[in-house]
Design brief:
Layout lengths: L3 E5 L21 E6 L2 E6 L2 E6 L2 E8 L2 E9 L8 E13 L8 E16 L2 E8 L2 E8 L9 E5 L3 E4 L5 E5 L2 E5 L3 E6 L2 E5 L1 E5 L4 E6 L8 E4 L1 E3 L11 E7 L5 E7 L20 E7 L9 E7 L5 E8 L5 E7 L20 E7 L9 E7 L5 E8 L5 E7 L20 E7 L5 E7 L5 E8 L5 E7 L23 E5 L5
Parallel strand pairs: 1-35
Antiparallel strand pairs: 2-3, 3-4, 4-5, 5-6, 6-11, 7-8, 8-9, 9-10, 10-19, 10-20, 11-18, 12-13, 13-14, 14-20, 15-16, 15-19, 17-18, 21-22, 22-23, 23-24, 25-26, 26-27, 27-28, 29-30, 30-31, 31-32, 33-34, 34-35
Length: 486
């Protein structure tokens, strides 16, 4: 139950627009060669490896990683793979200190294994961010010969919708009721199809009548919905380029073996999850293209939510931390952890070695939960941070638009000078939950904050575009703009 509102926020400070991603993007699964006749792929929250005998999915569970191997019983180990539909881009990545930095990797949208069973091909591709594998049965071949064994699963069952449910580590993986069809020109004929469980970890298909003189497609989709809530680790959150062409990538990681550089200010992961910051030279050959790579964090969970880079290559970071020992700098506005979670604001200069590279770092928060979601930097170096807070004891400016928390979570805006000192802070919100998710600066001197609210009493102005709270809205957007008083 959320609504749209607009408000005017008087400030005399300057910022540049900030464009941070709001969480993981649900990209399609892409595949790349990983060996002779084998391929690997990545989806949202899982990775997959393909071979003629079947595929193995690696999932993140509460107890760590779990491999679920789907074996096509009796598959031809010499089945030939055909990589199809090359994607119009190249990827580069690293996987820890012991792994090679790979560049210009070709990816494919489809991998086909030919004659895995007599007259049966398997085609791997994606359905959105999920894995899809089609059994393509040629005329005269027997689809009842297709049997799948699930190694690493605890049990199998079929739910009321006919989906195959794979139990693993106390959670559910769903292989949806297959779409079974035959094509005749532009028309498609649907065939009834169901799963049949054979033993504890094996399943086959039951099919209705079909034309055996025409190809048949059996099309299951695998949905790893039980595992998607634990994303946000080992994830790039932001990317930027400076005026000299260097690339900057920052995000969150649980890895303990990133190949940090000798100039790193923090060469090791300090706890559960740390922030990482990397500077890359696109013109250099690997591994020399990693100019700078460092961790930033404490012994608890640290989560980057936003980054920005100025023309000089200074990296600005904002997020939230549960670490009481998150690195802060001497003279920072707030060096003591305030409560359940605090927001943090930091500046890193990758051109400086060791601890000198951390130009400034501070907590921003009170005794509740404080989360910075957005950051923007002005040409003069002033830093604008926006987010949400449940704290009622954050120090506000004398000129704050709203000096106290109105209830629940309020949005906040904090403004820092080019040395990292807090020069302005205000709450903004109503009686329920308000959240600032983006901050930017317009050419006319206006500061713009966008977010959402569930507060019918959210503060509005008389000239607001819409003064009504639309309780039926599924999404919310709150927009703040102000003209500079300079």
């Amino acid at each position: 139950m959320r609504s749209i509102c607009f408000f005017l926020l008087p400030l005399s400070v300057f910022a540049a627009p900030s464009h941070e991603p709001r969480g993981p993007v649900k990209l399609p699964v892409r595949f790349e060669a990983s060996g002779s006749n084998t391929f690997s792929g990545k989806g949202l929250g899982y990775s997959v490896s393909l071979s003629p005998e079947g595929h193995t999915v690696t999932l993140r569970t509460k107890g760590g990683e779990r491999n679920i191997r789907t074996i096509i019983v009796g598959a031809n180990a010499k089945s030939v793979a055909h990589a199809e539909s090359p994607l119009p881009f190249r990827t580069s990545y690293l996987r820890g200190a012991q792994a090679a930095w790979r560049t210009n990797v070709v990816s494919f949208a489809h991998i086909r294994y030919e004659s895995v069973l007599p007259g049966v091909d398997v085609l791997y591709h994606s359905a959105g961010a999920q894995l899809e594998f089609d059994f393509v049965v040629r005329p005269g071949a027997d689809p009842h010969a297709i049997h799948m064994r699930y190694e690493g699963a605890d049990d199998l069952s079929v739910d009321r919708e006919g989906n195959l449910v794979i139990g693993a580590a106390g959670e559910r993986i769903v292989q949806e009721l297959p779409a079974v069809y035959q094509r005749n020109g532009d028309s498609m004929r649907l065939i009834s199809g169901n799963y049949r469980i054979e033993g504890k970890r094996e399943a086959a298909f039951e099919l209705g009548a079909y034309d055996r003189t025409q190809p048949l497609v059996i099309d299951p989709v695998v949905v790893y919905s039980g595992f998607l809530g634990r994303l946000g680790t080992d994830t790039a959150i932001g990317i930027a380029r400076d005026i000299r062409g260097f690339l900057y990538v920052a995000g969150n990681t649980r890895a303990a073996d990133l190949p940090t550089t000798s100039s790193s200010g923090q060469p090791a992961n300090a706890g559960d999850q740390d922030v990482f910051v990397m500077k890359l030279d696109p013109q250099a050959a690997a591994p020399n293209d990693i100019v700078y790579l460092t961790y930033l964090g404490g012994t608890g969970t640290d989560e980057l939510r936003a980054m920005a880079v100025d023309p000089k290559g200074i990296v600005y970071l904002a997020g939230t931390t549960a670490s009481v020992d998150f690195p802060t700098t001497s003279g920072a506005t707030q060096t003591v952890f305030g409560g359940e979670k605090d927001a943090f604001v930091a500046r890193i200069d990758p051109s400086q070695d060791g601890s000198a590279g951390l130009l400034s770092s501070t907590f921003f928060g009170g005794t509740g939960t404080d989360i910075a979601n957005a950051i923007s930097v002005s040409p003069a170096g002033n830093i604008y941070v926006a987010g949400q807070t449940s704290s009622s004891d954050i120090t506000m400016s004398d000129s704050a638009v709203q000096g106290s928390n109105s209830g629940g979570y309020d949005a906040f805006l904090g403004v820092y000078d080019n040395s990292g000192n807090l020069i302005y802070a205000t709450y903004l919100g109503g009686e329920k939950t308000d959240n600032a998710q983006a901050v930017a600066f317009a050419s006319d001197g206006s500061v713009v904050i966008a977010g959402n609210t569930t507060s019918p009493a959210f503060p509005l102005t008389g000239s607001a575009f819409d003064t009504n709270y639309h309780a039926g809205a599924a999404m919310a957007l709150s927009l703040a703009s102000s003209r500079s008083r300079d």
